[in-house]
Amino acid sequence: MSGAIDPWLLSILVCPATRTPLRYDEARQELVSEEAGLAYPIRDGVPVLLIEEARRIEQ
């Protein structure tokens, strides 16, 4: 599997906490919500958009 996430998928995904767009961090394999200060993991190519699975990020 390549490290990239499908651009169409990324265009429709939003943060479950804030309903704002997510930024793809290819190096960390995460979807980042700047608004919520959370990073959601991508595991085996599947975004895990569960707030309890997200990592807090520094603002």
From TrEMBL:
Similarity remark: Belongs to the UPF0434 family.
Organism: Hephaestia caeni
Name assigned to this protein: UPF0434 protein DFR49_2624
GO cellular component, one term: cytosol
Domain of life the protein comes from: Bacteria
UniProt cross-references to InterPro entries, sorted A to Z: Trm112-like (IPR005651)
Signal sequence segment: none
A Pfam family annotated for this UniProt entry: Trm112p
